[in-house]
């Protein structure tokens, strides 16, 4: 990436800004969907501008237009030339289990031998292994682990994430996890939206006593989380044999009473009615949805629930079945994407999520890019400030070393990021942290 410095005398009539990104071969704006997420045929339009440019001042987007128009009106001390490259809004990951210690590489062999998610869980592995590791980690150790994880995400073009707790499963350890998310968000540069997922699994000390656990979570933990403003969303792993519909409803409605917006792991492994529950509690987002029923989809549509699809989840669980994205898109239910980053699905590169959405969910590259930008912003209720390259939004953007935006769906397994701009600051240049 070349940085040019213009001659000051020829710039007198121009407005000074901080940064100009110019000559993008394709500028993907994802514009026009700040009020309502893109749905149906709208998801096919990425708002492409050829030879596009963006003027940035004080961290915000001041103007978006053709390069000649921007360069005739604006001057800046820092100019990024994106010739031959694509520029997109910063990628947004709408579903991550961000805070965890340890790893579970040994489960890969179990999965290969055919052990399922719930089977590994019942053997004391899976989530419960990560719960032991996360409880054993101090807050400082977790901060160090997660700070590196945040850097990995940024270097791959993700500028904002939804970040869940859910590997503490005790009040102190859930609070510790949420404090880590809040502290990293305060530190920046990655933006993290905290989600309380105390109902991720039934902790070992509550085995066979799910009602007692749900009561404790609702009556003791949620009030304290609200009082300390530790979370923005409340999520539930709504699944057969874990938290079923009745328990999930109670947690989500209690969370809502305490000001936490509901989101839900719905119908991932079994058709339990999670999509219907998402509509009933007016969840912001229902996630996974492999087994969502037709009536669940109709109710989601009426209630305005976003479908956040996670194509890396069935891949890493070695399932044959994937969510049918076209069911949602054809019914004009907005689709967003997330990585499902977790110790079971350790994926920090959202470019691969976009590619998996194309190869496994049969979404077009345009639909997948919209789902990972403006629709993902809606999934985390931040579409008024991020998700598209439009005047007034935060200057979060990525320059990818590709000539056509469809490379994001097409090319696998390399990091195509050239430059990452976050709040108007260049954080990654030539693919490396500045
Ligand atoms: Zn999840």
Give me some keywords for this one.
alpha/beta; 2 domains; eight-stranded parallel β-sheet; Urease, subunit C, domain 1; ten-stranded mixed β-sheet; 16 helices; TIM Barrel; binds zinc ion; 434 residues
Structural description of this entry:
There is one protein chain. The protein is an alpha/beta fold. It has helices at 67-73, 107-112, 117-122, 127-136, 139-155, 171-187, 210-227, 245-257, 274-280, 294-303, 312-316, 325-330, 350-359, 365-371, 374-379, 407-410, and strands at residues 3-4, 15-16, 19-28, 48-57, 60-66, 74-75, 78-81, 86-89, 91-96, 158-164, 191-199, 233-237, 261-266, 285-288, 306-309, 335-337, 397-400, 417-422, 425-429, 432-433. Strands 1, 3, 4, 5, 7, 8, 17, 18, 19 and 20 form a 10-stranded mixed beta sheet that branches. The protein has an 8-stranded parallel beta sheet with strand order 9-10-11-12-13-14-15-16. Helix 9 packs parallel to helix 10 and helix 13 crosses helix 14 (365-371). The structure holds zinc ion. Zinc ion (ZN) binds next to loops. Zinc ion binds at residues 95, 97, 265, 340.
Give the CATH class of the largest domain: Alpha Beta
SS elements, strand count = 20
Content of β-strand: 15-25%
Find the structural class using helix and strand composition.
alpha/beta
């Amino acid at each position: 990436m070349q940085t040019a410095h213009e001659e000051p005398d020829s710039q007198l009539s121009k407005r000074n800004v901080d940064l100009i990104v110019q000559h993008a071969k394709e500028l993907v704006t994802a514009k026009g969907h700040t009020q309502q997420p893109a749905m149906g045929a709208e998801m096919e339009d990425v708002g492409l501008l050829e030879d596009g440019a963006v003027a940035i001042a004080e961290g915000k987007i001041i103007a978006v237009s053709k390069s000649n128009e921007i360069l005739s009106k604006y001057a800046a001390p820092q100019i990024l030339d994106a010739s031959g490259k694509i520029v997109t809004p910063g990628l947004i990951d709408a579903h991550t289990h961000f805070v965890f210690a340890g790893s579970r590489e040994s489960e890969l062999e179990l999965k290969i031998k055919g052990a399922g998610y719930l089977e590994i869980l019942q053997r004391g592995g899976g989530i419960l292994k990560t719960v032991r590791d996360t409880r054993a980690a101090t807050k400082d150790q977790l901060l160090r682990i997660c700070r590196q994880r945040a850097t990995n995400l940024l270097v791959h073009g993700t500028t904002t994430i939804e970040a869940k707790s859910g590997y503490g499963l005790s009040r102190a350890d859930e609070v510790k996890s949420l404090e880590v998310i809040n502290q990293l968000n305060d530190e920046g540069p990655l933006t993290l939206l905290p989600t309380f997922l105390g109902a991720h699994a039934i902790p070992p000390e509550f085995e066979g006593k799910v009602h007692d656990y749900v009561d404790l979570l609702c009556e003791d933990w949620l009030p304290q989380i609200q009082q300390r403003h530790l979370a923005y969303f409340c999520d539930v792993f709504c699944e057969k044999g874990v938290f079923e519909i009745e328990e999930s409803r109670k947690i989500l409605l209690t969370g809502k009473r305490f000001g936490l917006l509901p989101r839900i792991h719905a119908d991932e492994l079994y058709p339990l009615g999670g999509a219907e529950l998402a509509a009933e509690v007016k969840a912001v987002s229902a996630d996974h949805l492999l087994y969502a029923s037709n009536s669940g989809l109709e109710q989601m549509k009426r209630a305005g629930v976003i479908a956040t699809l996670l194509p890396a989840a069935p891949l890493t669980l070695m399932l044959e079945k994937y969510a049918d994205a076209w069911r949602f898109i054809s019914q004009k239910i907005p689709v967003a994407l997330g990585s499902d980053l977790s110790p079971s699905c350790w994926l920090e590169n959202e470019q691969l999520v976009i590619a998996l959405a194309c190869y496994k969910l049969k979404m077009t590259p345009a639909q997948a890019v919209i789902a990972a930008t403006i629709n993902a912003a809606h999934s985390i209720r931040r579409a008024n400030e991020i998700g598209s390259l439009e005047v007034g939004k935060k200057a979060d953007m990525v320059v990818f070393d590709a000539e056509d935006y469809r490379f994001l769906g097409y090319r696998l397994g390399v990091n195509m990021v050239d430059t990452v701009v976050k709040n108007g600051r260049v954080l990654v240049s030539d693919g490396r942290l500045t």
